[in-house]
Design brief:
It is built from four helices and no strands. The N and C termini lie far apart (52 Å). By secondary structure, the protein is mostly helical.
């Protein structure tokens, strides 16, 4: 049982079969089969992808926290934007329901 959210996310990410299959299928084309130890370039490519993924997701997290703090201080703006998105979904649902399927 992992209590730390970072460790839990890391554990889930490392055992994610979709990510493992993606890395295996995508990186094969960039690895020279004649290289004495093909695992080394594979690990380097995987590490580069993981570093950029961590940077990207960390940026999203920090921006999300900042936006959440901003919206918690501006209740009217938050309510207005939520209503606008709700209206957009209702409009899209009505448009989808009215669309013909031929």
């Amino acid at each position: 049982n992992v209590q730390n959210p970072f460790k839990r996310a890391l554990f889930i990410s490392l055992l994610n079969p979709k990510a493992i299959l993606f890395l295996l299928s995508f990186f094969v084309q960039f690895i020279d089969p004649n290289y004495p130890t093909p695992a080394i370039p594979f690990l380097i490519l995987s590490a580069v992808v993981m570093v950029f993924s961590a940077l990207y997701l960390s940026t999203l997290i920090f921006l999300g926290v900042r936006l959440a703090q901003g919206f918690s201080q501006r209740k009217r703006l938050s309510a207005g934007l939520s209503s606008g998105v709700g209206g957009l979904f209702i409009w899209f649902g009505a448009k989808l329901a009215a669309a013909s399927l031929h």
